Amino acid sequence: MPHEQAEAEELRSAALEIAEAIAPGWERRREFVERVCAPIGQWMVGALAPQPGDTVLELAAGAGDLGYGVARRLGEQGRLVTSDFSPAMLEVARRRAAELGVTGVDFRLIDAERIELEADSVDGVLCRLGYMLTADPAAALAETRRVLRPGGRLALAVWGPLERNPFFAAVVGSLVRGGHIPLPGPGMPGPFSMDSAERTRGLLDGVGFEQVRVEEVPVRFRFADLDEYLAITADTSGPIAIALCGLGEDDRDAVGAELRGAFAPFADAEGYELPGVALAALAS
């Protein structure tokens, strides 16, 4: 196996291990995630404009709420395919569908880089905060284009620049300075691997999408106190979560002290409210 291919497989294996580990945390924090991501989801669904009878595939669906909001638009003749590459995450999505009473969903275990669906088989694809985590986002986007029918649409979202997302930047900076995580290198998968409109547009153009629109979507992160922030982050934030969970008491106290200072400008009577920005794109 060539070196680059072996490295990509190692990245995929590590990503799957992390997704499996944090799936319970994502389920616990579903309401927080959906509250933060509500503006992103509204943009994506509005841009995708699903129609009755459409087949819509959601990649990296997590708990599945975004797709379930689309399902009722598809009608009895439509079809929602809810997918994730993590079996544990897909079970979270199944439980959420049962909780909401959503039926007729086709649940699939799908790696976005190797979509096991026929070419020209779906009318729309949703992927919220997923492509940025893949070992090869260009391959995942090429696979997405392959399964889209002529005239089909992709709506995606990724995080904008780290420096404009203090919810992540503060803890990443503290963990990097403490030697607990490395700063991700260029081209490495992670929350900020597609953090510019130019990068995102370039990837979409590069796999043959002809009409591409990229916009910023502002979001807000609200939490009551530092303990809640650390608990949420440890439950949901991938490699950051793994690093936080592995800290000893002294290191955790040191990180907490840095965060307290970093978040002070965002304090109010109800806790903290941090600004953030995502990039959303529509491609066809």
Structure description:
There is one protein chain. Helix 1 (3-28) packs parallel to helix 4. The mean pLDDT is 94. This protein has 284 residues and is of the alpha/beta class. The relative contact order is 0.15. The chain has ten helices and eight strands. The chain has helices at residues 3-28, 30-48, 65-74, 87-100, 137-147, 166-177, 197-206, 226-236, 238-245, 249-263; strands at residues 55-58, 79-84, 105-109, 122-128, 148-159, 212-223, 267-268, 271-283. Helix 4 (87-100) links the parallel strand 2 (79-84) and strand 3. Strands 1, 2, 3, 4, 5, 6, 7 and 8 form an eight-stranded mixed beta sheet that branches. It has one domain: Vaccinia Virus protein VP39 (Rossmann fold). It is globular.
Quick structural summary:
The protein contains ten helices and eight strands. By secondary structure, the chain is of the alpha/beta class.
Mean pLDDT: 94
| Name of the CATH architecture | 3-Layer(aba) Sandwich
Give the ordered list of helices and strands: HHEHEHEEHEHHEHHHEE
Total beta strands: 8
- Main β sheet profile: 8 strands, mixed
- CATH homologous superfamily label: Vaccinia Virus protein VP39
Name the shape in a single word.
globular
How helix-rich are the residues, as a percent range? 40-55%
Q: How many structural domains?
A: 1
Radius of gyration: 19 Å
Termini gap? 34 Å
Query: Roughly what fraction of the amino acids lie in strands?
Result: 15-25%
Instruction: Give the C-level CATH assignment.
Output: Alpha Beta
Structural class given helices, strands, pairing?
alpha/beta
Tally of contiguous helical segments: 10
What are the segments in which pLDDT stays under 50 over at least 5 consecutive residues?
A: none
* CATH T-level fold name: Rossmann fold
